[in-house]
Amino acid sequence: MEIIEIGHERGWQKKAEAVIRSGGTLVYPTDTLYGLGCDATNPGAVRRVYETKKRDPARPLPIAVSDIPMLQRYTHLGPREEEFARRFLPGAVTLLLEARDLPPVLTAGSSKVAVRIPDMEVTLRLIKGAGVPIVTTSANISGMPPPITAREAVEQLEDVDLVLDAGPLERREPSTIVDPVEGVILRQGRVPKELIDEALREIYGRGIKETLP
């Protein structure tokens, strides 16, 4: 496991991109929590993430993309879904959308994938440079507290190739997960449901149908 302090060591991006392209795994900062990631299009790398987190393979993994064009490349994004995405992304909202050209192991056999655009320049540079979506699950053992420092992540995870340390993050709060087509909030996170409901009413003509725990 190699640990790189971003801002103190040059070349971190090339090393991180090389890890992703080679099927490796890495811990990296996002605008919500430290994430555990890999090339989301590489089934073998995705399996390593499941194993490292000790995550139930029946639970799908979310991904991060760099921009709307990449979102369009890996999901079926209709006009209303795109408008909804542009309303909240980049930001702490994860959208559940129909997946395109992603391995079944990532989505646990579902036709949908949870995806977002992080609001953090370091993360966006990493995804753009790698040229592929990356897995963006919290860098912890399943059931343990999610990390806001690289040290917290390292203390929990063993089989990781690279750790990008950007210092402590501001707060320990995940993104809000919403299926805009169904009008369902699957996880309440940083973005309040009132803002989601308002956007659904303006774009889809109806508000939130259901909020799941």
Any overview of this molecule?
The structure is a single chain. The chain has 213 residues and is α/β, with parallel strands linked by helices. The protein has a single domain (2-175), classed as DHBP synthase (Alpha-Beta Complex). Helix content is 33%, strand content 20%. The chain is built from 8 helices and 12 strands. The termini are far apart.
Describe the secondary structure blueprint for this structure.
Elements: E1 2-5, H1 12-21, E2 26-29, E3 34-37, H2 43-53, E4 63-64, H3 68-74, H4 79-88, E5 93-98, H5 104-107, E6 112-116, H6 121-130, E7 134-135, E8 137-138, H7 150-156, E9 162-165, E10 176-179, E11 184-187, H8 193-204, E12 210-211
Parallel strand pairs: 1-9, 2-9, 4-6, 5-10, 11-12
Antiparallel strand pairs: 2-3, 3-8, 4-7, 5-6, 10-11
Helix pairs in contact: 1-6, 4-8
List keywords for this structure.
alpha/beta; 213 residues; 7-stranded mixed β-sheet; 5-stranded mixed β-sheet; DHBP synthase; single chain
CATH C-level: Alpha Beta
Give the distance, in angstroms, between the N- and C-terminal Cα atoms: 35 Å
User: What integer value in Å does the Rg equal?
Assistant: 16 Å
Mean pLDDT: 93
Q: Output the CATH homologous superfamily.
A: DHBP synthase
* Number of helices, where a helix is a run of at least 4 consecutive DSSP H or I residues: 8
Tell me the CATH architecture. Alpha-Beta Complex
Assign the structural class, choosing from mainly alpha, mainly beta, alpha/beta, alpha+beta, or little secondary structure: alpha/beta
Write the CATH fold name: DHBP synthase
How many domains make up the coordinates? 1
Specify the biggest β-sheet: 7 strands, mixed
- Tally the beta strands: 12
* Global geometry: globular
Order of helices and strands: EHEEHEHHEHEHEEHEEEHE
Strands of the widest sheet, in order across it, are 7-4-6-5-10-11-12
Indicate the percent of residues in helices: 25-40%
